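User: hey, got a sec? need Thymidylate kinase folded
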Amino acid sequence: MGRLVVIEGLDGAGKRTMADRLTKALHDRGATVGTEAFPRYGRSVHADLLREALHGQHGDVADSVYGMGLLYALDRRGALDDLRAELATHDVVLLDRYVASNAAYNAARLRQGAGGEVVRWVRELEIERFGLPVPDVQILLRVPREVAAARAENRAATEADRAKDAYESDDALQERCGLVYDELAAASWLSPWRVVDGAADVDVDELARFLLT
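Assistant: Yep! Here you go:
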């Protein structure tokens, strides 16, 4: 079985860019790499409902923390067979967001910490009930909220399909979410975490070497 590696961080932290760079670095070391990004917009009905809710559709669905959390979880549950197949045929499966995103954002919305009720609920739902594979390593791409916000703003201005959603537009939520991510990493929630400075030039070659040892 391959290693399941997850990149986590705030909206605008640079997860997609890191995933692309890390994939190349792993390939350069001879590793086979499978990739996936959550939510799976355009490929999952649950993901599409999430995006629509975050942009003001479907009434008060976006107001429900547990309702939104369930949709995120169902999107990943729908990818379970694909994840298992990828892990069976690749050295590394690299994910842009995973279960910890659900834990961090829901806790931040409810003003709870990593030890709160909603984080336990996410773990029980996604890992224990849905049977999603536990990551081998989770990488927290840590950046100051201001840097992440500026990147998200630039992305919305330059990419036609990346308008900021309700979560991305809430600076206070992003601030709280960053704190929860720090707590999850410190507690090694689900698996070991590697915290990297997303505002600096990350040494992806060293990171790739770490992931393969």
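Quick note: The radius of gyration is 16 Å. Let me know if you need anything else on Thymidylate kinase.
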